[in-house]
């Protein structure tokens, strides 16, 4: 992206929330750019709990059940 390009929305942060938001906006035809300070993706467990609503949001943006099963495991009561 050059400084001359224009977008409808700039999402600050390419973490889970930013990436999901950008994906949803782009799927609706909105021009979006994600601005992330880190030069590459890195693993960082920022949250260890995903609510049912968060899991549904991941499904809506196309995360497969296979991927969800590998990264989200139920905690026994």
Summarize the structure.
The protein has helices at about 15-25, 50-60, 65-70; strands at about 10, 30-35.
Describe this structure in words.
The chain has 77 residues and is an alpha+beta fold. The protein has one domain. 36% of the residues lie in helices and 10% in strands. The protein contains three helices and two strands. The chain has helices at 16-27, 52-60, 65-71, and strands spanning 9-12, 32-35. A two-stranded parallel ribbon has the order 1-2. The radius of gyration is 15 Å and the shape is elongated.
Features:
alpha+beta, single chain, 3 helices, 77 residues, elongated, 36% helix
Topology of this protein?
Layout: E1 9-12, H1 16-27, E2 32-35, H2 52-60, H3 65-71
Parallel strand pairs: 1-2
Nearest-angstrom radius of gyration? Answer: 15 Å
Fraction of residues in helix: 25-40%
Largest sheet properties = 2 strands, parallel
Distance between the termini: 48 Å
Trace the largest sheet across and list its strands: 1-2
SSE topology string:
EHEHH
**Helical region count?**
3
Alpha-beta classification: alpha+beta
Q: How many domain units?
A: 1
Instruction: Provide the residue-averaged pLDDT.
Output: 82
- The percent range for strand residues is 5-15%
Number of strands: 2
> Which of globular, elongated, flat, extended, rod-shaped describes the shape?
elongated
Q: Catalogue the unreliable spans.
A: none
């Amino acid at each position: 992206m050059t400084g001359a390009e224009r977008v409808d929305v700039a999402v600050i942060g390419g973490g889970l929330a930013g990436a999901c938001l950008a994906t949803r906006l782009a799927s609706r035809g909105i021009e979006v750019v994600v601005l992330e300070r880190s030069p590459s993706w890195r693993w960082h467990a920022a949250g260890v709990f995903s609510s049912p609503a968060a899991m549904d949001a991941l499904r809506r943006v196309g995360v497969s059940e296979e991927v969800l099963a590998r990264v989200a495991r139920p905690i026994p009561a």
